[in-house]
Amino acid sequence: MEPQVRDNTEQSRFEISTEAGLAGFAEYQLRDGGRTVAFVHTVIEPAFEGQGLAGKLARAALDTVRERGASVLPYCPFIRGWIAKHPEYTDLVPADKRAKFEL
Q1: Average pLDDT per run of 10 along the chain, which is 103 residues long?
Q2: Best CATH choice for the domain 4-97 from the list 3.40.630.30, 3.30.870.10, 1.25.40.10, 3.40.1230.10
């Protein structure tokens, strides 16, 4: 089974799961009536580290935000670093906030 990412809106986090269960999550806070998604913390469980799941989680979460027409505030260091390595996602961060996040 390919890892699956879903938006668990009840817990305000995107979750990535494998056949073995929940592998990790990226917590967020909705702002501006849902028009902005502030990512605050990302966790990959130790048993799942080194499998590229954090990157898959970041990509899927950011793609979902893009599909919804929302913007991103990457307070989470992992999400911020991932965006920095994948500049095609920089446009999700409002132009006037990019310097704050060093993007």
Answers
A1: 95 97 98 96 97 97 98 98 98 98 97
A2: 3.40.630.30
